[in-house]
Structures are given as C-alpha cells and as structure tokens.
Amino acid sequence: MDYRPKAYSIIFARSLYALNWFDIAPALKYISADLHMNVIQIGLATTSFYIGLALFQLVGGSLAHRIGNLVVSVTGLGILGTFGIFSGLSTNFVELSVSRFMAGAGSALFFSPALGIISDIVPVERYGSYVSVYNGAFSFGAGTGIFAFGYLDTITGWRLSLVIGGLLLILADLALFILMRRENLKKRRPMSDLIAAVKKPALWILPVVTVGSAISETIMGQLFVYYLEEYRHFSAIIASLAGSFFLFVGLPGGFISAFIIRRYSRKVQVTSLFVLMSLIFFFVPFERNLAEILITLFAFSVLSIYGFSYLYMEASNINRSAVSFSLSVVNFVQMMISSAVPYLYTYAIYSVSVNTGWYLLGVISLVPALFIVKIK
User: Fold this and answer.
1) What residue ranges in 236-334 does DSSP mark as E strands?
2) Which end of the chain, N or C, is less packed with Cβ atoms under 10 Å?
C-alpha cells in the first residue's frame, strides 16, 4: 500500500489526540462550578495533565526504540481516550486530577513514536513536509476541541462532551491499528543509540531555549478561554471561538513556519522570532477589544508552530538512528518546564493580579530565548 494513506491515518489520529487535550478547556468554567474548584485547583488539574505528559515522554521514546513505534503509539492513544472518558465521569478534584495525569501519560506514549512511524514509512525528502502537516493537524484538532466542544458543553453538558471526545479517539485508534498492523515496524534497535542520543548536549539545551512555544501552547490552548470568560467577561461562545482561532491558525501556520525556517535560519533570526513571541505575553493585558485579541492569537499561533517545527527538525537531525527517543527527550524537557506554568500563572493571578500572570509568562519565555545564539 502507498505510504500516504498510512501517514495521513496517523495525522488524523493526531488531530483527535489533540482534541482530547483541549476539549476540557471550554469546560473548565462548568467544572469549576460543578466540582466546587477554585482557580488554583483549576490550575493544578490542568498541570496534572502536563506532569503525566512530561514524566512519560522518555518512557514512550525508550519503549518505541526497543519494541516498535506502532504498539506504543496505539497503546498511548487507547490510554488517552480511556482517561478522557474518565475525566468526564470525575466527581471531585482528586478524580479529575488523576484522570488528567493518566491522559497526559497516554499522550506521551503517542507523540514521538507516531513521528517515528512517519519517519519509517515516508521518504526522507518528504519528512519535513509531513512534520509540518503533523503539527498542523494537532492545531486543527485542538481548535475543534475548543470551539465545537465549547458549543457542545452548552447542549449536552461538559461530562458527556468529554466522554464523546474519548470515544472518538478510541475509534480512531482501532482504525489506525487495523491499517498499520501489517507494516513491518517492530524494529529492535540497540540501546547504544539511546546512550549516544542522551550524550548530545544540544538535545537538552534546545528545548530549554525554545520553551516559549510550549508555554504559548499550554496557556493559550488550555486557560485562555477561562481567562476571557472570567477576567474579560466574554460569553462562553465568543471565548471558545477566540481560543479555537489560536489553534485553527496553526494549520496554515505549519506551512508558514516551514517557509520561515527555510528563509530565516541564522541564529540571530531564530532568536529574534522567539524573543518576539515572548514579548507578546507582556502586551496581552493591554488588549482592548476582540480584534486586538485575535491579532495577538494569530501571532502566538504562527510563532509557536514555528518554534515546535524548528525544535523537532533540529532534534530529528541530531541522531537519525534514534528519532523517536530524541523527540521524547526534547518533549520531556519542555514539558517538565511547561507543566508548572499553569499553576504559576493561576497562582500569580490569585495572589497578585491578572496582569502579573502574563508578565511572569513573558519573563519565563524571554530569558532562555536570549541564549539561542550561544548554542553550538
């Protein structure tokens, strides 16, 4: 069979995978009321997903390297879908946090092994294009999760919408397994490849200096809808529309970022783009209307996709014999940092002011980006 249907089945699964990340975002307001959670608990429940996502990154990459990308990817999607359903069935803060942690763990098992599958089946000269589409599919699925499920929440309630999201992912997981099961992807690779990868300093430094893209995706995708509703007093529909706009822009943003990477690859240019993204955080509190908010979201979306595409391409080239593991390392480092961001952001809002939360994000993103020019 031609590689393209298989590659696009992975990309489609990626979109539903993203939907199960972000379908909870428009539900946070209702969850807060139904489960009697304050803003800090909302931040902790959101953070728990990213903790699971971070802790299981290296597990997913290591397992994929030893037992094959397909079995790990399929298992990860199954776990994410199952605990997406359990998130909708949660009755208190602890149950929701545990469900989000396990959903994050399942997400970690899918991401880098799925890119490893694409690396295995797609011609080398086409890999970069498929990485961009893969990233764009994430944004499309995430945008659908925020907008469509924000509307669904008002009709069926947040519980049933989360259950529906999980069920859709499980169905996509089964379809992916059926389509890919005959593919020879069970390659046992030597552990020496992993050791060689972890000894590459750039593999650990790159995700730190480019962490602004992860922070942008985390906050704008997970908590921006809540911010617009609670602190800017937008309606649930308008807030969900704005949040989904940020993610939908990521689909064309993948192609825009590919163009930027080809044209502007010098360190000073790369640094400038990451610094620009960091500075936008400082301007968010001064947005006066929806048009300014949408302009900010557009810039955040394109620049964050650029940041991820730049990071994944560089990480993939560091060690071609351990692509899945290399990607899991950079994701692990970024997620360990960004997993704390929702809590820090909401704590700053709760303890000081809403503007302080945005200034804090700007500082956390800006300082590391200044060191990109120092990387060898």
Assistant:
1) none
2) C
Query: What whole-number distance in Å separates Cα of residue 52 and Cα of residue 60?
Result: 12
Q: Which long-range contacts (CB under 8 A, 24 or more apart) does 161-165 make?
A: 161/23, 161/27, 161/88, 162/23, 162/24, 162/27, 162/84, 162/85, 162/87, 162/88, 163/84, 163/85, 163/88, 163/89, 165/16, 165/19, 165/20, 165/23, 165/84
Region 64-92: mean pLDDT is 90
- 133, 242, 345, 350, 366 from 355: Cα distances, Å: 35, 19, 10, 11, 17
Q: Of 64, 78, 76, 75, which Cα lies nearest the Cα of 186?
A: 64
pLDDT at position 164, please?
93
Three-state secondary-structure class, residue 349: helix
- Its sign, for the CA torsion 335, 337, 343, 346, is negative
Q: Do 11 and 117 meet the contact criterion of CB atoms below 8 Å apart?
A: no
CA-to-CA separations, 57 to 65, 183, 313, in angstroms, rounded: 12, 24, 18
Q: What is the pTM of this model?
A: 0.74
Please tell me the total number of residues recorded for the chain in this structure: 376
CA 105 to chain centre: 13
Q: Which of 54-58, 185-189, 288-292 has the lowest mean pLDDT?
A: 185-189
Confidence at residue 226, expressed as pLDDT on a 0 to 100 scale = 83
Decide if 55 contacts 165 (C-beta within 8 A). Answer: no
Contacts of 55 (CB under 8 A, 6+ apart): 105, 108
Exposed / middle / buried, residue 309 (Cβ in 10 Å: 0-12, 13-18, 19+): buried
Q: Could you tell me if 161 and 88 are in contact, meaning their C-beta atoms sit under 8 angstroms apart?
A: yes
The string over 130-164, giving b where at least 16 C-beta atoms fall within 10 Å of a residue's C-beta and e elsewhere, is bbbbbbbbbbbbbbbbbbbbbbbbeeeebbebbbb
Backbone phi, psi, residue 154, to 5°: -75, -15
How far apart are alpha carbons 370 and 55 in whole angstroms?
27
Q: What single string gives the DSSP state of each residue in 171-204?
A: HHHHHHHHHHTTS-------HHHHHHHHT-HHHH
